[in-house]
Structure formats: structure tokens, C-alpha cells
Amino acid sequence: MNRLAVLIVLASMVFGALVGFAVPTTGGSVYRSGATIVFTAAQVEPDPATASVARHVSQRLPSWAKIAASGAVAGEARLTAGEAITAHEISGAQSLRIELDSPNRDGLADRATAAANTVISVVTRLEFNRVSGVVSDPGGEPENMSRAWAIWAALLGAVLGALLGWLVCSLRRPGRWVAQVADGGSRIEGAEAFAASVDHEILALWAAVRTRRGLLVVGLGFFAVAGYAATGSVGPPFLILLVAGYAAFRDPRWIAGAFLILGASVFPPKLELVKVGPVTPTVLEVALLIGLIAVWRKPGKSIFTWPLVIFVAAVAVGSAYGFTGGGEFSEIADSVRAILLVPLGFVIVYRAFAGKLPQLVALVAVGAAVASAVELLAAVMDWQRLLVDERTSVITGDDTSEVSRLAAPILPLWGPLLILLVSGAFPARPRWRLLLIALPGLAHEALSFNRSTWAPLLGLVVLVAVARFGSRGVVKRLLAAAALGALALGLASGGALGKTGEALAGRVTSVFSGEALVEDSLADRVRENNAALNTLLVHPIVGTGVAVPYGGEIIWYDELHDRTVVEARPWIHNQYLRIWLWFGVFGLFAVGLLMVRVASAVVHSWRLGAPGTVPVVASALGLACMALQSIFQTTLIDRPALVAIALTLAVLALAVGWRPRFEQVGQTPSSARRIMTR
């Protein structure tokens, strides 16, 4: 990066920081008032208080502090929009400091006192009146919290400003990585040649399956799945991994395929082997290690090399800070092992399939269809070991339906894959074959009952359809789809499709009726975000470090010991807040650099007329789909989702430099109805 680019990035960072600092002050102030509660233990017998009764309060105060910030108190206190309660234990005083944040200053002191009384009421009820409390210090004069929010917003603005400046420089004068973008071709001919290549690979795959070697491979795969389903033993999949590892030293595609199958198909991603010291390696991690050895000497510097290196550095810093900050080593190790699947898995897939992108797309599409078909069959046949993360009920509003809610490791991959199938980078003829591949994925997505993944996927599919078919073509297709959808929803709501169809119809209609916005799941995620934001106000630069609690809580009743238990919540659904908490602003910047490189690759592929523009755009939209889903899903610690991200990044990096063979150009009739080709 030259001096002018450095100046642009620095200027953008300073401007973003100034704007961020100004927004909280111009958008209205946030005020805080606090009250103090003193708790005492209640004793049924009229005897002097014993030491054990007195200790009960001090032992339970940390749990009561979390109860004070829970939804139970928020509901009874009738908090309005923008209001939140936090609580802090006053060490050695058997007291809690209750703080109420609100955008409204008027009467805040009285409302803080009322909130403290609500906390007393809830705690007393949960403790079966074995404790009592009194507000010893009522709500004080409201304090303006806008300064803390201004610092937080200034840091966020600085990161976003720096990334924007970096993007501008990357679009105007990219670095050496742009030399990897294939140029001098035609988007139209490239799209046609790519679809023809994928079609050729599908036919070649079908022909290979019917050979002795192909039947052997299929038989080994069946042995791995059926063996695990029947016994639950790690042996069958591990044996197949060893076979793939042996073959990988002649052809690394075998171990890359094994890595994808173990990480994103029907197997649990944490098939653990023998404990080694403080950690227990999994079959997936062994595949990762063998894959790295197999591709280590292969050339393969990609457009994502340096962004991924910076991301790994952020992970290392966050892990070290979390360890020194009191994070559990086992949790740190597990989280880091999961996150490293992205850079390391990317290296394996990218190098193993260098120059063979159509083959990779064909294998992934067919393999995903088979995996989802197996998952659907497992649900029908009740093969519990293959129903990874299955739930037996679906809660929509106040209604609970006893139906199977499928998850499975293959599910995160279907977002990017469906976008790729719609984009025109996949052969559309014969249509039955396209439907045969897409329908298992569509059925699997529907039976996941996951609205937070449906919405981004549907929006991006419509965007791709507009680019491919034009506005008129999309309107016709949307009208037809709306009519069929309305008919299907009507039949399902009436019970014609059974309990599953009825539950699915209720799930879909809840999005349009607004019922989804008042459900407990959304309110629960809002409380997670509030807890994380309150923590980031205290640690805005470095965060908390990996595996350090951020303030979220889980409240449950322990029947054995007859008490309410409050534990630190180990997860948070908003992954951008998790990145900030774990890796600080450096982590946000590292992830942002990766996104900037994706956007730059799309723009330069378009400008240079790269033959692989269609799969580049489709892969970038697939990554955008997962990025949007990461606002509502725990993708940063979900191994299948991380494997899907690594695979999609590899597809994009390979597509940037993809060139068709000369004989493929012009094999299919010219068509203007392909995404981004006109």
C-alpha cells in the first residue's frame, strides 16, 4: 500500500471516529440511576440466626445479580423501549447495586427505586420467601451515559471508516493479488463454459460411480454412515478417513473430500478420539492435519492469504487475552480449534482443487443433495444418531408443535449452494436433474423451521433472480411462486399435510403477521445483546478475550437442591458482538478486511470480464447470506457453518482465476438469461 493509500485509510478512520463519537450525543442521551438493595436471610424457627443462614445470602448474591438483569424482572418492571437493568454485587455488604438505563431522564430516580423493589419481589419469590430485602438507598440523581456510548461508537466508526477507505483504495488501485484475476475473456461465454464444465463433471461423476473403483468408494461411504448409525462408534468414519488419507498423498482431493464430508454432511462434527493432554482431538481435526500435510508442498497463494493471516493473528491475541483474563482453558481451546477450521480448511480445499473448480462444484452439489436426502430418510426412519441437533418441538408464539425440527451439519452449506444453483453457474438442463439436486436442500431448509436463515436466503435468491431473468421475468416467477405458496400454506394450515405441514405454515405466517417480533426468542436475544453491549462499554478496545463471560445468563431451577441457579451464558447469537468481545476492535478489523477482499474480488472480476464472474458473484452472495445469518446464529463456534464458510471462500478464490478450456467455449447456446452476463 502506497503513502496516498495510507493517508486515505487514516483519514477515513479519523472521520469515522468523529462521526461515531457524535452520533450518540446527537441521537439523544442515555441516563442511568442506581438504587441499593440489602438482603437478609429469613429463618422459620424463632431461633437466633445461624452461620449457615447468614452465609446463604452471600452465596446467592451473584445469582441474584443475574436475575436482576433477566427478562423476568424486565417484564414485571414494565421497562419501555431503550431501558435496561444491570446489577452489581457490593462485596461483603450482602447488597446489590441496581442500575436502570433509560433515554428518559424524567422520573428516572423513582423508576430505579421501583425496579429495585421489583428485583426484591422476584428474588423473594424464587427463593420461596427464605430471604427478604429492602431498598436501603433509593434511586439517585440520573447520570448521563452518553460519553461511554460515544467512545464505544467512536471505535466502531473508526473501524468502519478504515475499512471503507481500504475498500476505496482496493477498488482504485488494488495490490498484487489482482494479478490472479483472469481477464481477457467474456462473461457470457465464461458462464456458458462454466455451466458446461459442471455438467460434464456431473456426468463424469455418474460414470465413475458405475465403475469398480466407484462402487468401492460408494460402498466405503455407505459403511461409514451405516456403521456409525448402527453402532455410534467413531470407528467406521475414522477408518474411511485413514483410507482417504492414504490416497491423499497421490491425490489430495481425497482428503479434501473427507474433510468436507466429516465437517458438513450427516456426521456429528465432534467425533472425539483418545484424550491427549487437556484436549481430545476429533476425527475432523485429524482430517485437517492430514490434509495440511498432503497439500503443504503444493503451490497455492490465494487472494485471501493475507486477510486470513491477519484473522489468525486476531484469534491468537484474543485467546491469549482470554487466558490471562480468567477464561477456561478447555473452552478457549475448543473455540480456537473451531475457528481455525476456516483458514486451515480453506487452504486444503483451495490447493487440493486448484484448476478443478467445476469438479468441486459438482461434487459438493451432488454430495449435499445425498446428505440431505439421508437426513430426511433418517427423520422418517427415526435413526437418532444421524439426527444431529434435532429438536422434537417447534415453538411459534404461544403454540408448541410436537414435530421434528431438523438441523444436521449439511444445513449451513445449503444457503450458498442454493444461490449458486439459481445463479446460472449450474446447468439448468435437464431440469429434472437440477430439481433432483435442489429439492432435498429446499426440504431440509423448510424442516429446519429456522426463520433467521430463511429471510436472508430468500432475499438474496430474489436478488440473483432479478439479475438473471430481469424484472419482468422475476415478476412472473414471483407471482407463480406466490400462488403456489399460498395454496400450499392453505392446505398445510388446514391440516392436509399433517402436523409438520401445519407447524411449518404457522412458522411462515408468523413472519408476515408480526408474531415473530413478540416471541420470547427475540426478546432473549435482545437481552444477550444488551449484556454484551454493557460489557463492551467497559472494555471497548480489547473486549473480554476468548471464553470469558460477557454478562449473559441462563436461569434454571435445580430440583435436587431446591434452588434457582443462574449460570453464565456461554453463547451469544450476534456473532459480530462475539467477535468484538473475543478479539476486540482488531478482530472486527480483521473480519472486515476479509469482507473488503471479497467485495474487491467481485468488482475486479466484473471490470476485467473474468470468465468466472458468475461463480464469483454467486459465491460472494453466499458469503453475504452467511454474514447476515450470523446476526442471529452462533456461526462462529458452529463447526459445520465454519466448514461451509471455508468451502465458499475456496470456491470464490478458485473462481477468480478460473479459465475455461478452449473446447468448452461456445458449447452451449448463447443466452442472455444468466446472472450478470449482459
TrEMBL record:
<feature type="transmembrane region" description="Helical">
    <location>
        <begin position="360"/>
        <end position="381"/>
    </location>
</feature>
<keyword id="KW-0472">Membrane</keyword>
<feature type="transmembrane region" description="Helical">
    <location>
        <begin position="608"/>
        <end position="629"/>
    </location>
</feature>
<feature type="transmembrane region" description="Helical">
    <location>
        <begin position="478"/>
        <end position="497"/>
    </location>
</feature>
<dbReference type="GO" id="GO:0016874">
    <property type="term" value="F:ligase activity"/>
</dbReference>
<feature type="transmembrane region" description="Helical">
    <location>
        <begin position="335"/>
        <end position="354"/>
    </location>
</feature>
<feature type="transmembrane region" description="Helical">
    <location>
        <begin position="278"/>
        <end position="297"/>
    </location>
</feature>
<feature type="transmembrane region" description="Helical">
    <location>
        <begin position="215"/>
        <end position="248"/>
    </location>
</feature>
<keyword id="KW-1133">Transmembrane helix</keyword>
<protein>
    <submittedName>
        <fullName>O-antigen ligase family protein</fullName>
    </submittedName>
</protein>
<feature type="transmembrane region" description="Helical">
    <location>
        <begin position="579"/>
        <end position="596"/>
    </location>
</feature>
<dbReference type="InterPro" id="IPR051533">
    <property type="entry name" value="WaaL-like"/>
</dbReference>
<keyword id="KW-0812">Transmembrane</keyword>
<keyword id="KW-0436">Ligase</keyword>
<feature type="transmembrane region" description="Helical">
    <location>
        <begin position="641"/>
        <end position="658"/>
    </location>
</feature>
<dbReference type="Pfam" id="PF04932">
    <property type="entry name" value="Wzy_C"/>
</dbReference>
<feature type="transmembrane region" description="Helical">
    <location>
        <begin position="303"/>
        <end position="323"/>
    </location>
</feature>
<feature type="transmembrane region" description="Helical">
    <location>
        <begin position="149"/>
        <end position="169"/>
    </location>
</feature>
<dbReference type="InterPro" id="IPR007016">
    <property type="entry name" value="O-antigen_ligase-rel_domated"/>
</dbReference>
<feature type="domain" description="O-antigen ligase-related">
    <location>
        <begin position="447"/>
        <end position="590"/>
    </location>
</feature>
<feature type="transmembrane region" description="Helical">
    <location>
        <begin position="406"/>
        <end position="426"/>
    </location>
</feature>
<feature type="transmembrane region" description="Helical">
    <location>
        <begin position="454"/>
        <end position="471"/>
    </location>
</feature>
